[in-house]
Amino acid sequence: MVPPNLLLAWALWAFAGFMVYLFLSGLLWGAGWTPTPRRQLEAAASLLNLKGGDTVYDLGSGFGRAVIYFAKNYHVSAVGVEIDPPRRRVTRWGAKRQGVREQVQVVGNNLMDVDLSRASKVFFFLTPLLMRRVQEKVAREMAPGTVVVSVDHRFPDWKPVKTLENVHLYIVPR
Question: In this structure, which CATH number among 3.90.226.10, 3.40.50.150, 1.10.260.40, 3.30.470.20 belongs to the domain 38-171?
Fold first, then answer.
């Protein structure tokens, strides 16, 4: 039998290792982990005017909170773009657990390499350092008039059409 103190020590080491992974993986993949608060997910869904038939992409989807939330509550197809394999696995597990596995797809790719031309709506919560590059990507790949929301950070050259709960709505210009 394993002594209780040893079990506790193992559990603490496992927890510490997971926390180090969460916060230092940002150095490896280029983005840290900050979960989007529910009020901002609700604001994003409202600004995007999500409805059945929509395909919403989440760039840098992390553990899948947004894609699962959108699929479950708005019955849309949700595509999470996440380069980190453990986060993709957690997203797939969460989608299955929440009963939206068929509506949620997780793409293992760098968000700058995924094709956005099939997205009817795009959501993201990225670092300020990526905003110019993502703005250029959205302008290049998405049809004029499609909508994009960004949590907390703004595009440097576009003015948001509307802001709610620090979620910024943009319409791709012509």
Answer: 3.40.50.150
The domains of the chain are located at 1-30, 38-171
Report the distance separating Cα 26 and Cα 89, nearest Å: 17
Task: Taking the CA atoms of 116, 121, 125 and 131 in sequence, report the sign of the dihedral they define.
Answer: positive
Strands 121-124 and 55-59: parallel
**pLDDT 10s digits, 28-86:** 545 567 789 999 999 999 999 999 889 999 999 999 999 999 999 999 999 999 999 99
Helices (H), the chain: 4-29, 38-48, 65-74, 85-97, 131-141
Predicted local distance difference test score (pLDDT) of residue 39: 97
Q: Considering Cα of 137, then 112, then 133, then 87, what sign does the dihedral take? A: positive
CA distances from 121 to 32, 70, 116, 145, 146 (A): 23, 11, 9, 10, 6
pTM of the model: 0.83
